[in-house]
Amino acid sequence: MDYYYRITLIVLVSIAVTGLIAIPFGNPKFIDRAIILELTFIALSVLIWKGYHKALYACIPLAALIIIGNSLAPPHVNLMMTFSKPLNAIVLILGGYVLQIVLIYSSLRAILNIRSKRLTTSA
To answer: What's the gap between Cα 71 and its chain centre?
Structure first.
């Protein structure tokens, strides 16, 4: 298993764990969407663990949507600006931004490594 491929898998599992920690602190009105999102990350983790390289392509837009959604949600922006609930703010920043950026980077690098291996083996 490629280095960045493995990193992507670790990041996906970390995002799922962070999300499972964050769900009880969130708004109960949105719990259904939060659970679906966590199941998506778990499904991507399983697919990548089983060797489905195409799942890497889904990680990039999903992570971008998470970052954009968190940036456009006024309660999230207020929480990050005021740190009124420090634990919630740290979990939001870690899971909603830091890990998502790492997911985009590691997925992209894993895709590029897979493509370069295909080019070198076919030549």
So the answer is: 15
Residues whose CB falls within 8 Å of the CB of residue 113, separated by 6 or more in sequence, listed in order: 2, 3, 4, 5
Range of the domain at 112: 3-122
CA distance 90 to 50: 32
Q: Give the residue carrying structure tokens 């999903």.
A: 62
Whether residue 1 is predicted with pLDDT greater than 80 in this model: the reply is no
Q: What is the pTM of this model?
A: 0.92
Count: domains in the chain: 1
Name which of 63, 68, 20, 26 is nearest 44 in CA terms: 63
Distance, in Å, from the CA atom of 58 to the CA atom of 62, rounded to the nearest integer, reads: 6
